[in-house]
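Bug report (template v2)

What were you trying to do?
Predict the complex of my protein with pyridoxal-5'-phosphate.

What happened?
Run completed; filing so the output is reviewed.

Input:
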Amino acid sequence: MISNRMKNLHPYVPGEQPKDRQYIKLNANENPYAPSEKVQQALLDFIKNNPMKLALYPDPDSLELHASIADMLNKTGGVLCNAHIDGESVEADEKDRIPFTVTPDMIYSGNGSDEVLSFVFYAFFDSDKRLVLPEFTYSFYPVYAGFYNIDTDIVPMKKDWSLDTEELLSRAEKNKSGLIFANPNAPSGIGLSRAQVREMLKKASPDRIFVVDEAYCDFGGESCIPLLAEFKNLLIVRTFSKSLCGAGMRLGYVVASPEIVNYITTVKNSLNHFPIDALAQVAGNAACKNPAYYCQCAKKVVEERESFQSFLKEKGWDFVSSKTNFVLARHPSVKGEDVYKKIKAEGILVRHFNTKGIEDYVRITIGTKEQMDALKAAIEKI
Ligand SMILES: *Cc1c(COP(=O)(O)O)cnc(C)c1O
């Protein structure tokens, strides 16, 4: 009954979303803070003042949202935790400043960056070329490769968990395929500098797409947005789900040349003309107009991350020093799965992957101070 295509589907397994018990959720890299009050108010106002708009189709091109996203990037440089806050306004730290203006026609938005990534795969990765992927990166990439019938060519990580950039490049050249990785990467939490990505781009073929997924960049990475001035094949994916406290809103976006944006729009218009509903457009728009709030949230997460890493060090745990809102860590003698179970027994969920090479570790999302204090207490018991 099923198509041959179906046999290639190996669906992504997300972090648990338990309904039975109130756990402290540190397993899906969600933000522990609610969206800003301005977002909440904008949604209430919209429903109260424009109920008819829910009966009509939304703007298929989310033009207002794209203008607000571009504006937020210009103000923050795409690294919220480093931006300087002055009342309601924010200014990018000098090292993050974008040396040109991001314009709305450089933005494409979709129903979560997962959907955006799916369209990117469709538009830019051919099924007759093996796609080069790092051994450990966002685990949705191999899922999409399966979905689109693309074989993968997996490059092992370096010993320190960083990407083997030389090997990625040489295999992409050999396979004549594009590249995709997360920066900072998951689940390692470490990233390449902008200078390192620039070196890669200089060596990569300008005729093939080069995708950098910046889902976690706002927590201390170096954004590659400034490199768009130099490289027309660069495509950056970002999301509202982590640093913009909006995983439930399902909003993700691309920053790239207008030409690349047009290709992805063509995919969208061939599949789902209206991927972002009217409420998500209103919420996303309001969020981008209140960057100061999200800068504060990102700064708090970074502060908790640093404190948590000091704690792990004190306790003799092994961890990868993170630039994101999660930490990959292992107990010196207790197995990863047992660490996960012991922490769960204390009412806290972290993520354990039953994958060779990473099974000793757990990935812990950084929560509020209260949540992290509870986690530290649970860890003390192990
Ligand atoms: C969380 C995550 C995404 C998915 O984000 P959504 O916008 O919620 O679909 C994409 N890429 C990476 C690397 C992520 O960690």
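What did the reviewer find?
The longest strand covers residues 234-239. The chain has a mean pLDDT of 96.
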